[in-house]
């Protein structure tokens, strides 16, 4: 299953993009840039007890070292911080967190990741870094609200995020050096609100697009814009619904490889779903496989439904791999250990369907 959502995957079919998506993607790129720039230049702050604030403050590395000495120190400390704050990693099952980003009834998994990057580029472009990415959520609201609002889920709902502590520290260093010497002292809380949360919006939007597509297929109403932003933006929800409905007409219930299906679904605000739904690189172990599986369980289940029974033969190897992963989780009983009962029941329902194929 992880092969489908890895960087090694490639498509074999040509992709035709509806011209409407070219317009919508241009609109949402502009909206993202406007909203992110607005928050980058404001002095709002998250609360002092926010998990990301705690991680940065606990890091405690001298900020005006050379970037090479700085990253050496941070890289040594990052795995220990991940364990201290109960992030899910190859060495630690981690915890399920309550509503750090999406409020009440949001049950959140935080994946500790170590991505590769060019240090010189990171130092130059610290403002655009995305140390925290949204891997899974279930919202269809296109308001581009920061991941600190309360979605007020009526029942336990799973969300998954990746946390690159080293990249977070590098962005914080860039911000600190940039505002060093200013008359007004700014806090870690302000940094998190100004850069970390706004820079989660691109990955959040990509998942929103996939959720909209799935709801359209399953005849579930999509949300209208629920949250009012500090700047005025037009609501394009109806246009996005029409465009994704056209995509469904092209791919649903036809013989198609899942990799080709994902590559033919445009993502917001750019690219395709094959790229948008990639999982972070990781070493998969007993400690973290459960979390990565849950991060793409509902995605995989929706692919099964959208592409239909006629596509099972084309994707039998992927289905078999998923079934093997799910049977292993059941043998280890790890989901029952990690998930609250109501959330476990929702995931088990999906698991039972896939194991029954």
Care to describe what's here?
With 357 residues, the chain is α+β, with helices and mostly antiparallel strands. It contains 14 helices and four strands. Helix 3 packs across helix 5 and helix 7 (201-217) packs across helix 8 (237-251). It has one domain. A hairpin with a 7-residue loop joins strand 1 and strand 2.
Low-confidence stretches: none
- Termini, distance in Å? 15 Å
> Numbering strands along the chain, what is their spatial order in the largest sheet?
1-2-4-3
Helix fraction bin: 40-55%
Give, in order, the helices and strands: HHHEEHEEHHHHHHHHHH
Domain count, please report it: 1
- How much of the residues is beta strand, in percent? 5-15%
Total number of β-strand segments?
A: 4
Shape: globular
Please give the radius of gyration in angstroms: 20 Å
How does the helix and strand content classify structurally? alpha+beta
Give the number of helices.
Answer: 14
Largest sheet: 4 strands, mixed
What would the average pLDDT be, to the nearest integer? 93
